[in-house]
Write a structure and sequence with these properties.
- Helix content is 53%, strand content 11%.
- Strands 1-2 form a two-stranded parallel ribbon.
- Helix 4 packs antiparallel against helix 5.
- The protein starts with a helix and ends with a helix.
């Protein structure tokens, strides 16, 4: 998916866990490409279930206003789902 989006000219941001070496190996060639990494391809380290991580990433992406709104909605959904699971 990353490669397809990059080929179409999109900027791609991904979230990876610091311990996900096996999964990251699939995109290592993109990370090593100096023309892409840090320019059109970005990796953010964190966990999707950690709201502080998502808040930090949203703040970093604040220049992408439509994306920020989408991510904030997703964060609210994850937060409310986690609260429901904890309450059950």
């Amino acid at each position: 998916m990353c490669e397809l989006l990059l080929e179409k000219g999109y900027t791609v941001h991904g979230i990876v866990r610091r311990t996900s070496n096996l999964l990251r190996s699939r995109i290592e060639h993109l990370r090593r490409d100096q023309k892409l990494y840090g320019r059109r391809f970005f990796l953010h380290y964190g966990d999707l279930y950690d709201s502080s991580t998502l808040n930090r990433i949203i703040a970093e992406l604040a220049v992408y206003a439509p994306l920020k709104v989408l991510l904030e909605k997703r964060l609210n959904y994850v937060h409310s789902t986690n609260q429901q699971k904890t309450a059950a």
